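Tutorial handout. Part one gives the primary structure; part two gives the three-dimensional structure as tokens.
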Amino acid sequence: MSILGRVADLLQAKTQKLLDRLEDPNDTLDLSYEKMISGLQETKQHLAEVVTEQKVLERQIQSAQQEADQAQENARLALQSSREDLARAALSQRQAALEKVDTLGKARANIAAQADKLIGYQRTLEDRIEQFRTQKEVMKSSYAAAQAQVRVTESITGVGDHLSHVGDAMRRAEDKVSGMQAKADAMSDLMQAGVLKDPLDHRSSVERELQNLRSNSSVDAELEKLKAELGKA
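Part two.
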């Protein structure tokens, strides 16, 4: 594989990893649901348009049928008046009206079939949307639960950034405490050795040593006294 091919594969892998990190399943599910709802609304709009056209044709059929009936009455009236020519003209109008009724009827039948298909499609889409909505809510709940579990586990194990920082802070604090304790012990040893002096203690080093000897002698005397008392008992 060429260098450019390897670089392209690496970029593709990095891009896919970044997209996976940025993609929120909840947003994806909501977007899919919104698209399905939008499709349902478009279907309803188309159905409304078809039904409207069907109603228009039905009114035109009714008007043409009324025209044919009126022409029939006109032909009868013309014959009663011995006007065969008018009767023939009226019957010609009636024939044209009936042909119009037939043509409009066929058109209405085709549109009615389309309306039935759209109604069936709408019902199917509504059922699928309801099923998807239920599955969406279940998946969102499952994802939220899994996400919470991951966060808790990260908090416990320190995998997450927050607890990792807390652990670093704890280690730094422990190091500072250990260093401070060592410094305090060292200073105490230095004071006992006389290297460091208490600014409020104005005694000389000799006086301090004598005081330590007196204190030790007093302690030894008390210890011997206590041993004697216990021996007598």
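Part three, for discussion. Residues 125 and 131 are 10 Å apart (CA to CA). Helices lie at 3-22, 25-80, 84-157, 161-193, 205-232.
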